[in-house]
Design goal:
Blueprint (H helix, E strand, L loop, with lengths): L1 H17 L7 H62 L28 H11 L26
Length: about 150
């Protein structure tokens, strides 16, 4: 909001300085030019502060996403290892995922037992119950359709 105000002030100062219909005396012109430069620097500083703030927020969001992903993967890995030990497996591979090159982690494997349903069952049992979703208040009319698909 402050940046918008300064930009509006800059525009007004620029118009006043460039107004050929009402020429300024030399002292007033110099003063307006100095004021314009100060406001321009203020706007530039505010813009830089905003960019820095935005960048830090994005980094924090990414850090949190990575931490949450690591926690989920760790939980899945530990649960898979527990089930594999109970069943006496020698190894467990994730044959559903792909590396960052687009190739699967396992290029060949003979048909083997799939632990996925067991891992999912244990994870569901150990999850805390989901909180009740907040009840939505009625709105005045139907939501606008912005062409987005509906996901149920």
């Amino acid at each position: 909001e402050e940046l918008r105000t300064i930009i509006a002030e800059l525009s007004a100062l620029r118009d006043q300085i460039a107004d050929k219909a009402n020429p300024l005396d030399e002292a007033t012109g110099r003063q307006l030019a100095r004021t314009y430069e100060i406001k321009r620097q203020e706007a530039q500083t505010l813009q830089q502060e905003y960019e820095n703030f935005k960048e830090e927020r994005e980094k924090e969001i990414n850090r949190r996403m990575i931490a949450a992903m690591r926690a989920s993967l760790d939980r899945i890995s530990k649960t898979s290892a527990q089930i594999a030990k109970k069943r006496g497996f020698d190894a467990v591979f994730d044959s559903t995922g792909e590396t960052n090159t687009g190739l699967p982690f396992v290029l060949y494997h003979k048909e083997a037992p799939d632990l996925t349903p067991d891992v999912q069952a244990v994870l569901r049992e150990s999850e805390p119950p989901a909180a009740e979703p907040p009840t939505a208040k009625p709105v005045a009319g139907p939501p606008e359709d912005h062409g987005a698909g509906h996901y149920d």
